[in-house]
């Protein structure tokens, strides 16, 4: 904040003058007169050629809306007698909007006659006519239809418009400039207080009582000798943020109508379309550039300059923050810091962490035409175009042909993972933000929409029926926008991902200040590579179950399920051991000594058995047993509620051979990988714990495996055993669990599911109704429920740490990548958060912003607005 801001921010609203001429020392502040008034004062302080401007305070404008007019004579006297005026809104935050500007106040019959001399009759008539029309519609609130019969540009257009006005209002068009101005102020003040305007700005985050200031500015006549015209100029490209002088300019002197829809001449210094301002008025152009540079330097922001040129002289009417794409926002913040204009910490605070996601993925171009055929939950960001396929096998075949495809499924299961790898995007009818498709999609950085229940999925007929009845079949091209949740027919124009140098620089600066660790959830070597690319500090969750769905392994898993004895199971699992060892070895090598936290097997075993008759027949052939045995086993393993059934540590206790094999694979891979590089200290995590005894039992077996491997290999290693807190009971009993573990990692997907008693796979069906009716403020699977689930997390942290002060605490549910949840975790004293690899950049920036705001006392959102 600059000194003048500090002074004025302390000006209490009720002491701000009702109206004040903007001078370098006038008492004007953002909080009393709005952003535009304050910006204009800064331009005046920079000695820029700003026309005379009077600022009206929020209080004055509120009074006007109630019928209490300020001293109008004083306002009018601030300007030359024959000046034309314009009024523009000045809200505290430009995003909150405001009524449109009204120009050329003061035009009347007498001014028209005067202007005929300087502008010519047509020019003067056009000016007057436009003012009458805009006054009629915005101030007198007439229906624009009343001018329908007026012939545009006709010789009598002006008198027809004046007649139409009089006929509608029963009064002649007001001639007194002070009266015109008062009416304009009143209409703008009342427009701001109207219900729809209030609702609109509240939706943009404005408080209910947000004030509006108004600025009354002398208009610079856009005519004279030599170069005359008006336009806007900025120093950067709004899409890329790269330095580039761009803008628009309407030149009157080059034979174009400065007031009409004349041809545009781009400012680009080598514009192929004829003479640019640089050619026709090089001095004015040089002045403009230097004014714009000064504004960038002193307003500490990329500004768009609104200007008028009269007889070659530049006048600055206004400066507004350049609108910018996500890519430009990052580039601009970094460039301002690199040029020493703002400190690095401020650059970090100026970028909304959520927008980084846009830079990591292809997007539908903002101006592309969207042929929307349905929508669902935006589960994994980015957009992808491909041909429709309905099974994982079709997806793999399509990928083999080199044809990008979108995999469409009712819902996905682990069997679909290979198909998901082959597809460029995934669309499901069912599921919520933490359903299988959503979690895997985010992990792979694959655009994904789930819960698109307004589309009809006919998997057998290989058809998708759009909300408007259109039928799409296998092979048709669709696009899914995983950022908005929209499903589009065809292929709209796309914007490529843009992780450029500025992106990397900003994140490096962020890492220097953040005070909470960021790891990635990574299951495969590709995930781990992505995690490294985004500088994750390790793997916080490696889900191992996907490793068993490889066709070669699936049959072995099934054989294990059919084994009758512990020895039989162990013997079958021994065949999987080398494969698992390779899996872990690959992860350890990629992570080069960074921590890797491997979660032991979690899902219920029946997920590995075929559900279809043909699948069961095939399995009976593969295992050489009767089909009836297969069917019986499948039925035996069926569960009413598999998510609360025999899974996680419950398998570890009842079918311990699986964990034994996994532990051995981890330890052997640890020794192998440590030989070739940095020593590896694996982390082994037990899922779905609810009782201390579960941990004791599993720990005893894993310790035994560790001792055995050490003895066999004659080599030593260490490892850390931890517990995944996913059940409310584990959180409540963290005090008795923590002495047995090196770490507690909170799995907030299951914890949310169990705290609410709400299935994460089915919640998508009613979630939007719940959110729309305000039952939940947000989808709790998406944004951490800090009240309920959060209370369990806090209890778990306090109780766990009280009994084991050295314990490492983290979160590995999908919430880990969400800036709001990271704030909670940081406050609660977590050591790190772990999230999908593609969310790591967002998490790094958000964590840095939280560290900075804890020092400045300003939230990231407030900083963005300042
Ligand atoms: C969790 O439950 O939060 C978690 C990370 O595990 P999963 O999503 O695999 O159930
Ligand atoms: Mg879980």
TrEMBL record:
<keyword id="KW-0479">Metal-binding</keyword>
<dbReference type="Pfam" id="PF02896">
    <property type="entry name" value="PEP-utilizers_C"/>
</dbReference>
<keyword id="KW-0418">Kinase</keyword>
<dbReference type="InterPro" id="IPR036637">
    <property type="entry name" value="Phosphohistidine_dom_sf"/>
</dbReference>
<keyword id="KW-0670">Pyruvate</keyword>
<protein>
    <recommendedName>
        <fullName>Pyruvate, phosphate dikinase</fullName>
        <ecNumber>2.7.9.1</ecNumber>
    </recommendedName>
</protein>
<feature type="domain" description="PEP-utilising enzyme C-terminal">
    <location>
        <begin position="499"/>
        <end position="850"/>
    </location>
</feature>
<keyword id="KW-0460">Magnesium</keyword>
<comment type="function">
    <text>Catalyzes the reversible phosphorylation of pyruvate and phosphate.</text>
</comment>
<dbReference type="InterPro" id="IPR015813">
    <property type="entry name" value="Pyrv/PenolPyrv_kinase-like_dom"/>
</dbReference>
<dbReference type="InterPro" id="IPR000121">
    <property type="entry name" value="PEP_util_C"/>
</dbReference>
<feature type="region of interest" description="Disordered">
    <location>
        <begin position="1"/>
        <end position="22"/>
    </location>
</feature>
<dbReference type="InterPro" id="IPR008279">
    <property type="entry name" value="PEP-util_enz_mobile_dom"/>
</dbReference>
<dbReference type="InterPro" id="IPR010121">
    <property type="entry name" value="Pyruvate_phosphate_dikinase"/>
</dbReference>
<dbReference type="InterPro" id="IPR040442">
    <property type="entry name" value="Pyrv_kinase-like_dom_sf"/>
</dbReference>
<feature type="domain" description="PEP-utilising enzyme mobile">
    <location>
        <begin position="403"/>
        <end position="485"/>
    </location>
</feature>
<dbReference type="InterPro" id="IPR013815">
    <property type="entry name" value="ATP_grasp_subdomain_1"/>
</dbReference>
<dbReference type="Pfam" id="PF00391">
    <property type="entry name" value="PEP-utilizers"/>
</dbReference>
<comment type="similarity">
    <text>Belongs to the PEP-utilizing enzyme family.</text>
</comment>
<keyword id="KW-0808">Transferase</keyword>
<dbReference type="GO" id="GO:0050242">
    <property type="term" value="F:pyruvate, phosphate dikinase activity"/>
</dbReference>
């Amino acid at each position: 904040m600059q000194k003048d801001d500090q002074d004025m921010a302390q000006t209490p609203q009720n002491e701000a003058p009702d109206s004040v001429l903007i001078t370098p020392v006038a008492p004007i502040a953002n909080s009393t007169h709005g952003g535009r008034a304050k910006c204009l004062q800064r331009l005046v302080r920079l000695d820029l050629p700003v026309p005379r401007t009077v600022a009206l305070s929020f209080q004055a404008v509120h009074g006007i809306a109630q019928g209490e007019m300020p001293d109008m004579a004083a306002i009018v006297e601030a300007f030359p007698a024959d000046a034309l005026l314009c009024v523009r809104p000045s809200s505290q935050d430009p995003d909150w909007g405001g009524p449109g500007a009204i120009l050329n106040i003061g035009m009347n019959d007498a001014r028209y006659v005067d202007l005929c001399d300087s502008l010519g009759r047509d020019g003067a008539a056009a000016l007057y006519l436009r003012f009458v029309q805009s006054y009629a519609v915005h101030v007198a609130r007439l229906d624009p239809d009343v001018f329908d019969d007026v012939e545009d540009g006709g010789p009598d257009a002006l008198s027809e418009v004046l007649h139409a006005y009089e006929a509608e209002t029963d009064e002649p068009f007001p001639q007194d400039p002070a009266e015109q101005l008062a009416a304009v102020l009143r209409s703008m003040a009342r427009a701001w207080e109207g219900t729809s305007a209030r609702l609109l700005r509240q939706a943009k985050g404005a408080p209910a009582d947000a004030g509006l200031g108004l600025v009354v500015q002398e208009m610079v006549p856009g005519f004279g000798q030599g170069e005359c015209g008006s336009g806007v100029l900025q120093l950067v490209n709004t899409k890329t943020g790269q330095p580039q002088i761009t803008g628009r300019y309407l030149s009157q002197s080059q034979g174009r109508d400065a007031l009409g829809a004349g041809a545009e001449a781009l400012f680009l210094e080598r514009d192929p379309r004829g003479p640019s301002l640089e050619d026709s008025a090089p001095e004015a152009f040089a002045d403009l550039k230097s004014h714009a540079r000064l504004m960038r330097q002193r307003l500490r922001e990329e500004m768009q300059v609104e200007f008028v040129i009269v007889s070659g002289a530049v006048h600055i009417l206004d400066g507004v923050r350049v609108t910018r794409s996500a890519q430009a926002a990052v580039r601009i913040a970094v460039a301002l810091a690199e040029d020493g204009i703002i400190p690095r910490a401020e650059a970090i605070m100026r970028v909304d962490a959520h927008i980084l996601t846009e830079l990591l993925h292809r997007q539908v171009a903002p101006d592309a035409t969207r042929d929307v055929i349905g929508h669902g939950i935006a589960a994994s960001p980015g957009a992808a175009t491909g041909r429709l396929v309905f099974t994982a096998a079709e997806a793999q075949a399509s990928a083999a042909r080199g044809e990008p495809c979108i995999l469409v499924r009712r819902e996905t299961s682990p069997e679909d993972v290979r198909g998901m790898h082959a597809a460029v995007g995934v669309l499901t009818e069912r599921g919520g933000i933490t359903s299988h498709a959503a979690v895997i999609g985010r992990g792979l950085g694959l655009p994904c929409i789930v819960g698109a229940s307004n589309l009809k999925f006919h998997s057998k007929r290989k058809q998708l029926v759009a909300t408007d009845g259109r039928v799409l079949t296998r092979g048709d091209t669709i696009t899914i926008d995983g950022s908005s949740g929209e499903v589009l027919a065809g292929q709209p124009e796309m914007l490529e991902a843009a992780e450029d140098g500025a992106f990397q620089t900003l994140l490096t600066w962020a890492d220097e200040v953040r005070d909470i660790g960021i790891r990635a959830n990574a299951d495969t070597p590709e995930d781990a590579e992505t995690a490294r690319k985004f500088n994750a500090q390790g793997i916080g969750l490696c889900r191992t179950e996907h490793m068993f769905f490889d066709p070669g392994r699936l049959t072995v898993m099934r054989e294990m399920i059919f084994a009758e004895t512990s020895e039989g199971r162990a013997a079958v699992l021994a065949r999987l051991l080398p494969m698992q060892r390779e899996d872990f070895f690959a992860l350890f090598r990629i992570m080069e000594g960074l921590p890797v936290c491997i979660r032991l097997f979690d899902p219920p075993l029946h997920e590995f058995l075929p559900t279809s008759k043909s699948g069961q027949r095939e399995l009976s052939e593969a295992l050489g047993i009767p089909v009836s045995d297969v069917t019986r086993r499948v039925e035996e393993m069926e569960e009413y509620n598999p998510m609360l059934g025999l899974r996680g540590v419950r398998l570890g206790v009842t079918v311990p051979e699986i964990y034994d094999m996994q532990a051995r694979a981890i330890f052997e891979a640890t020794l192998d990988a440590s030989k070739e590089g940095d020593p590896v200290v694996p982390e082994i995590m037990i899922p779905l714990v609810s009782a201390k005894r579960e941990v004791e039992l599993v720990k005893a077996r894993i310790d035994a495996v560790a001792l055995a491997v050490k003895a066999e290999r004659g080599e030593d290693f260490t490892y850390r055993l931890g517990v995944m807190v996913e059940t409310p009971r584990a959180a409540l009993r963290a005090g008795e669990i923590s002495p047995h573990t090196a770490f507690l990692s909170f799995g907030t997907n299951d914890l949310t599911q169990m705290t609410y008693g709400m299935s994460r796979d089915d919640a998508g069906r009613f979630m939007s109704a719940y959110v729309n009716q305000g039952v939940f403020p947000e989808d709790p699977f998406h944004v951490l429920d800090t009240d309920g689930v959060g209370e369990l997390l806090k209890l778990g942290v306090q109780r766990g740490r009280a009994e084991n002060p050295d314990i490492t605490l983290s979160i590995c549910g999908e919430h880990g990548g969400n800036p709001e949840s990271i704030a909670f975790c940081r406050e609660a004293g977590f050591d790190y958060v772990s999230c999908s690899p593609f969310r790591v950049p967002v998490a790094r920036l958000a964590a840095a912003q939280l560290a900075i705001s804890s020092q400045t006392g300003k939230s990231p959102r407030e900083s963005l607005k300042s």
